[in-house]
Recover the amino acids of this structure.
């Protein structure tokens, strides 16, 4: 039992280690700085959104609209380039993400619409706006050289995007573990009424959580659009599911009150390493899907059956 | 999610609130009826072809496939299972198998086996959610991904064509001017309504969704009931997929994309809370009718596809916000 | 002693392996999807031909997601592939990736779909059908069928998708160029999906009724959806001229029975083979043309018996 719970405790690290081990044995040329840099950059887009989602999930809420915000913010940052210039347009793009988060927050916190439904609705709305403003055509940016500069790899490992992601995850780790608001977040997520009773403004916290999540989805979208010099209404359509999977693989629970920044980092890296390794071997996408799905299910089952062995099942389900 | 879930449950446990709830329920159900009538009225005024038999039959036919899924999804929401996101996978399972197995075992066994296998996927969902206690979103997302992956690997990406025109003709036929497929939907809806509103299983479902611990204490087999909702949904999606395959006489792995959200939309617009504990099949279908009529009018008026999505999003948000507001007022 | 031997052996094996690795050229193939009616046969043809040519193919599937594709380009560069064949799903987004490939001295070509002119400096060639040209051919065909006048509906693929943009754009632009009096009643998106096309067509038929004198569907699957909707609404009445694209088997049957007017055959086998053949020439140091089309054939009742369906 002790071994099992140990496995359960460090399952993300274990799975990540296992993935890397298998990959290094199986895939020629997998280990190397280029692969590391590649995996990191690949994980960065997912990762930046995952950071926002981690916070939101810990608070007991969910956001399905991330992929749509990702597309919309990117489009805004590209469309405005000719009139504002690259940097101001990028800022407006991120602000558009934040505005989307305000709408999510209003629906979920002020109008008390369940966040799953609220963000399903806003997902449709944001995606529609993205199609609307672009007439469903991808939009090109003004300066391809800027994109090339952004894709530059520093010290053989980091791109701007991946460095940003790593910095953000460390900040999140610090915030969640060392600051009062960070710890309050867990209280809000595990028992909102108790948190409210102890003087935490749960509504405010959740509202800010939605804004934070969408803002980061906006940042990721703007970075993607700048890196590809393109804003497209179909960007990010597969993203939400991957991000949720990454965060959950990292041990954050959809029921709220549990999660960690380092876990999310582990989850993101696991998914990135897994994808990169399987692509190196030309594994068909549907096989990749099956593997990713199995790992996801395996990890949550492990989480449920081993760690909560002592907790009553009813309590776990009631909070679902 | 958690906080709203908890307060909701407390409220539902309170008999005084139950009375209020019923009143408000009546009110919001009538609200939906009024909305449907308004849409019908607007449609008839705005478009000369809207209120014709031909168009109404169209709406009915388009509704049938997603409608069967809606019946199942209602159980998932009522039992407090949030949502079943594996619907696209189980629809694909039904559509592809019902066609691919035809040459080997004949159309009827293929049809039945396809639905049964979809049901098996639902059983996996049910075990994960009901017995192991995994969050339904994650469980159904994971299982859906796996099943869809296997389905794609099995057919290797090609389109599967039907080989039995007789079964296609049967599905496309009409009885007294009503498409057979709509009649099948009607039968499923009636069975679903009976099970949910008139049978012990339905009482258990509502009780489990309303207050899990209380239901468990009063000897309701809560785990089985929760798992059952996912099996029911998978069977419905499997049937829906099989019918879809037979109508189109072709199927590909992504045939069910988007059906999960359409079904959730209908149920939620029908005023059924995602928190569980109450709701009925007719309400969900009323929601479906409203959404379908609205979409139909927008298409007839030539509203662009993106705008349609926009309106639908506003509708979901508005309907639920209104519902929450009404219920809160009813509680006071 | 034994340790020494095994070390030597391991060294020899490694040397052999690396030598073998260096000999066979590896081409990175970033395909649209690996589970798709058109893409799957194209992929298979490409891989089969590569085997004949002695080229290793590293096949990566974007699963129709542009972002995945842009990242896969980086994987190709990291793996130091000898060449890249890209199936673009967006006219712009891959340019930085292609520029990266060029910086790493990896030649790249496009298969199946074009990109914008800005991508030209970074690619050696573009092989495959021209979706824009297909739109134009469809316009010619429908214009001929309707003798230059009438009102048509367009059943388009996914909004924002490169193929949709090309096939609709080519059609609409060419009608103008022809000075045709054909009016487009409406364009609806049915996502290359038969069921969605069926539902959309029912609504179009209700809305426009007999005003619809012709139909242009972005692919044969969606044309099938319109035919089914028409048969439901008007049993026994002949369909208006319907033009599709792809040249699927069932479209051939529909042309024979008169339910469809024409389709455009675009063979996935040819598409796949042409790309790898072109890449093989580049790897041999030969110069290639920057645009190598695959033959597109308009199929009507006249030549339906003498043409092979695409898939």
């Amino acid at each position: 039992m002790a071994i099992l719970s140990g496995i359960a405790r460090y399952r993300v690290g274990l799975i990540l280690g296992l993935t890397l081990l298998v990959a290094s044995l199986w895939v020629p040329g997998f280990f190397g700085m280029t692969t590391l840099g590649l995996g990191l950059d690949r994980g960065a887009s997912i990762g930046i959104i995952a950071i926002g989602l981690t916070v939101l999930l810990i608070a007991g809420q969910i956001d399905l609209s991330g992929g749509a915000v990702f597309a919309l913010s990117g489009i805004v940052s590209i469309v405005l380039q000719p009139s504002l210039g690259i940097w101001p347009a990028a800022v407006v793009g991120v602000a558009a993400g934040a505005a989307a988060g305000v709408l999510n927050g209003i629906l979920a916190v002020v109008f008390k619409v369940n966040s799953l439904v609220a963000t399903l609705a806003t997902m449709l709305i944001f995606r529609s706006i993205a199609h609307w403003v672009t007439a469903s055509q991808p939009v090109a940016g003004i300066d391809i050289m800027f994109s090339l500069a952004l894709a530059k790899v520093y010290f053989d490992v980091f791109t701007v995007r991946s460095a940003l992601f790593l910095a953000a995850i460390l900040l999140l780790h610090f915030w969640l573990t060392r600051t009062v608001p960070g710890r309050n977040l867990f209280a809000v997520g595990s028992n909102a009424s108790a948190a409210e009773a102890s003087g935490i403004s749960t509504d405010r916290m959740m509202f800010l959580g939605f804004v934070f999540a969408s803002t980061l989805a906006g940042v990721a979208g703007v970075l993607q659009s700048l890196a590809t010099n393109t804003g497209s209404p179909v960007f990010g359509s597969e993203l939400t599911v991957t991000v949720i999977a990454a965060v959950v693989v990292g041990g954050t629970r959809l029921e709220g009150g549990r999660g960690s920044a380092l876990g999310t980092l582990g989850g993101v890296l696991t998914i990135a390493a897994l994808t990169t390794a399987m692509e190196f071997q030309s594994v068909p996408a549907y096989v990749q899907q099956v593997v990713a799905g199995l790992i996801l299910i395996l990890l949550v089952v492990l989480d449920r059956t081993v760690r909560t062995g002592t907790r009553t099942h009813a309590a776990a389900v009631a909070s679902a | 999610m958690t906080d709203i879930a908890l307060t909701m449950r407390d409220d539902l446990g309170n008999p005084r609130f139950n009375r209020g709830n019923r009143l408000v329920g009546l009110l919001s159900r009538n609200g939906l009826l009024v909305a449907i009538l308004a849409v019908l009225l607007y449609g008839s005024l705005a478009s000369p072809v809207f209120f014709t038999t031909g168009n109404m039959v169209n709406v009915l036919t388009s509704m049938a496939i997603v409608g069967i899924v809606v019946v199942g999804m209602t159980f998932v929401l009522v039992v407090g299972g949030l949502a079943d996101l594996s619907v696209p996978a189980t629809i694909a399972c039904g559509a592809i198998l019902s066609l691919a197995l035809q040459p080997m075992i004949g159309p009827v066994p293929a049809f039945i086996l396809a639905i049964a296998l979809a049901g098996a996927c639902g059983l996996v969902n049910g075990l994960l959610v009901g017995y192991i206690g995994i969050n339904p979103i994650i469980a159904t997302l994971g299982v859906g991904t796996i099943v869809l992956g296997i389905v794609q690997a099995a057919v290797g990406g090609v389109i599967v064509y039907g080989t039995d025109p007789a079964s296609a003709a049967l599905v496309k036929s009409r009885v007294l001017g009503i498409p057979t497929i709509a009649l099948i939907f009607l039968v499923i809806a009636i069975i679903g309504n009976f099970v949910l509103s008139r049978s012990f299983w339905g009482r258990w479902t509502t009780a489990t969704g309303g207050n899990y611990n209380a239901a468990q204490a009063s000897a309701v087999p809560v785990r089985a009931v929760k798992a059952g909702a996912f099996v029911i949904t998978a069977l419905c999606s499997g049937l829906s997929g099989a019918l879809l395959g037979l109508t189109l006489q072709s199927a590909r792995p992504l045939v069910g994309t988007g059906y999960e959200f359409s079904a959730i939309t209908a149920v939620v617009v029908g005023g059924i809370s995602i928190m569980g504990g109450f709701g009925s099949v007719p309400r969900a279908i009323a929601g479906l009718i409203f959404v379908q009529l609205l979409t139909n009018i927008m298409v007839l008026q030539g509203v662009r596809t993106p705008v349609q999505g926009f309106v639908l999003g506003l509708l979901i948000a508005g309907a639920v916000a209104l519902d929450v507001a009404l219920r809160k007022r009813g509680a006071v | 002693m034994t340790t020494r031997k095994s070390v030597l052996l391991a060294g020899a094996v490694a040397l052999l392996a690396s030598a073998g690795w260096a000999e066979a050229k590896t081409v990175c193939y970033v395909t649209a999807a690996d589970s798709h009616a058109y893409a799957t046969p194209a992929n298979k043809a490409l891989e089969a031909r590569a085997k004949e040519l002695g080229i290793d193919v590293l096949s990566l599937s974007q699963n129709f997601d542009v972002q995945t594709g842009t990242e896969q380009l980086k994987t190709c560069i990291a793996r130091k592939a000898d060449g890249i064949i890209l199936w673009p799903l967006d006219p712009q987004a891959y340019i930085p990736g292609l520029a990266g490939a060029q910086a790493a001295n990896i030649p790249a070509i496009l298969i199946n779909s074009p990109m914008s002119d800005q991508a030209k400096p970074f690619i050696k060639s573009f092989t495959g059908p021209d979706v824009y040209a297909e739109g134009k051919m469809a316009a010619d065909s429908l214009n001929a069928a309707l003798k230059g006048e009438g009102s048509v509906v367009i059943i388009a693929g996914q909004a924002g998708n490169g193929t949709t943009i090309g096939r609709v754009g080519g059609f609409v632009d060419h009608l103008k160029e022809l000075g045709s009096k054909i009016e487009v009643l409406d364009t609806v998106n049915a996502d290359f999906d038969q069921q969605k096309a069926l539902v959309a067509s029912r609504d179009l038929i209700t809305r426009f009724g007999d005003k619809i004198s012709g139909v242009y569907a972005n692919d044969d699957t969606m044309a099938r959806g319109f035919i089914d909707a028409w048969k439901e609404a008007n049993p026994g009445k002949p369909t208006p001229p319907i033009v599709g694209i792809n040249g699927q088997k069932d479209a051939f049957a529909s042309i024979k029975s008169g339910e469809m007017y024409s389709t455009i055959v675009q063979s996935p086998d040819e598409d796949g083979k042409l790309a790898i053949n072109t890449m093989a020439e580049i790897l041999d140091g030969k110069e290639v043309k920057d645009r190598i089309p695959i033959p597109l054939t308009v199929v009507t009742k006249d030549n339906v018996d003498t043409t092979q369906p695409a898939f």
About this structure: The radius of gyration of chain C is 23 Å. The interface with chain B takes residues 33-37, 39-41, 159, 186, 188-189, 193-195, 198-200, 202-204, 206-207, 209, 221, 224, 228, 232-233, 250, 311 of chain C (CB under 8 Å). Chain C has ten helices and twelve strands. The longest strand of chain C covers residues 181-189.
